Amino acid sequence: MYIVHSTFHVPLEKVEEVITIYQTRSKLVDQYEGFQSFHLLQNEVKKGELTVQIIWNTKKDYLNWVTSDAYKKVHELEQNYPDQELAAIKPIVQRFEVVAK
């Protein structure tokens, strides 16, 4: 199993807007081979810290996704978001290989 976290910090007044964006996301990633699940996580203490967690069967499945046209399309939409403050947020990406269950 392969897990990817993309953590980003959002101004507190825009947290609900960002949560709504993810609640109504395109779900293109869900259709990719090896996709297991998507979660948007909110830090309990630092409410402006959000993490997108996507779980894959394998690292290869993840790499197939990030090199796909669908991935590029999703991220182009983010770059062109009308709120440029949100569009400019850069996540910290961490990748994990599950080594024990």
UniProtKB/TrEMBL annotation:
Keywords: Monooxygenase, Oxidoreductase. Pfam families: ABM. GO terms for molecular function: monooxygenase activity. It comes from the Bacteria. Residues 2-93 form the ABM domain. The keyword Glycoprotein does not apply. The keyword Lipid metabolism does not apply. PANTHER family: HEME OXYGENASE (STAPHYLOBILIN-PRODUCING) 1, SIGNAL TRANSDUCTION PROTEIN TRAP. This is Antibiotic biosynthesis monooxygenase.
